[in-house]
Structure formats: C-alpha cells, structure tokens
C-alpha cells in the first residue's frame, strides 16, 4: 500500500491517525498534541503495515521526523514515536457536526480501527478521549444516567 495523505501521533501509548483534505488542520493538531507530550509518528504521509494483527503506522523514510507548521515552515523533531500501532482514526471534516458521534470501523489493510468523522476538535478534548479509550472509559453515544 502506498503512503496515505494523513498525519499520526502517539499519546501515552495510543496511536491516532488524522485524515482529511489539505488545510483541515492535521499538522496543527499534531503540533498541539506534541506540545502536550505526544510524539510524532508521521506528518503529511503515513505508511501502514500489519504486525501481530495490529495496524502499524510509520513515516516514509524521507519524511521521518519532519513536521509542517503551516505559515511558519518545516521543522525536524528529535522525539519520535517510530513505528506505532494506530488505535483511532479521525477524518477531519468541517461539515461534521454530530454532537456525540459513534465510532464506526474503518478498514485499513484488513484491520478494523475505530473511526470518527469530526470537525477539528480542541486538542485537550482529543487527548482526553484517547486516554479514556486506552483505559476503556468510552461510553456509548446513547448512554443515559439511570434514575
């Protein structure tokens, strides 16, 4: 599979793939996540492979460690995640406005990954979601308190 136009980062062991049209904020979200302790997997192009039943992401060799800061330029980062498992795929879509979307599976190389189509979320909310996902604390969209 050739590299896909996307970006990816790892946060506390959870890999997040960001997809979307050019200009939707993929690199900006990665930069913000890095500011909160995340590590870059890849920016602009992501390659995939399957290892032990998990979808793994990495950068094409020529882009390893490079992050675009729109309007500022390209930078090289030292702290990288390397090849990392992807646990959540997000398509950034400015027209998405569902308040509590249910993750739908995305199939990448035969591996099913939870997928959300959302507008650009605040980075703090996205990182909280990734932590809750890693810890199994995501409630279903139709959840209601009892009583």
Assign a percent range to the helix content.
10-25%
Helical/strand content category: mainly beta
Largest sheet: 9 strands, mixed
Number of domains: 1
- Strand segment count: 11
CATH superfamily: P-loop containing nucleotide triphosphate hydrolases
Q: Would you identify the CATH architecture?
A: 3-Layer(aba) Sandwich
Question: DSSP helix count?
Answer: 2
Mean pLDDT: 91
Low-confidence stretches: none
Radius of gyration: 15 Å
CATH topology label? Rossmann fold
Global morphology: globular
| End-to-end distance | 50 Å
Strand content: 35-45%
The CATH class assignment is Alpha Beta
The SSE string, one letter per element, is EEHEEEEEEEEEH
Structure explained in plain terms:
The mean pLDDT is 91. The chain is mostly beta strands and 147 residues long. It is globular. It contains 2 helices and 11 strands. 15% of the residues lie in helices and 39% in strands. The chain starts with a strand and ends in a 13-residue tail after the last helix. It has one domain: Rossmann fold (3-Layer(aba) Sandwich), CATH 3.40.50.300. It has helices at 26-35, 123-134, and strands spanning 4-11, 14-19, 39-42, 45-51, 54-58, 66-69, 73-76, 84-85, 88-92, 104-108, 111-118. The strands form 2 sheets. Strands 1, 2, 3, 4, 5, 8, 9, 10 and 11 form a 9-stranded mixed beta sheet that branches. It has a two-stranded antiparallel ribbon with strand order 6-7.
């Amino acid at each position: 599979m050739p590299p896909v136009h996307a970006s990816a980062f790892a946060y506390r062991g959870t890999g997040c793939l960001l997809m979307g049209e050019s200009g939707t904020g993929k690199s900006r979200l990665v930069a913000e996540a890095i500011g909160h302790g995340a590590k870059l997997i890849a920016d602009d192009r992501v390659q995939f492979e399957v290892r032990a039943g998990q979808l793994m992401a990495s950068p094409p060799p020529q882009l390893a460690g490079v992050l675009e800061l729109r309007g500022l330029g390209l930078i090289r980062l030292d702290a990288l995640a390397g090849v990392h498992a992807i646990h959540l795929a997000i398509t950034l879509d400015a027209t998405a406005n569902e308040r509590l979307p249910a993750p739908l599976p995305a199939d990448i190389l035969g591996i099913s990954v939870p997928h959300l189509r959302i507008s650009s979320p605040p980075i703090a909310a996205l990182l909280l979601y990734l932590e809750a996902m890693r810890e199994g604390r995501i409630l279903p969209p139709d959840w209601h308190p009892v009583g």
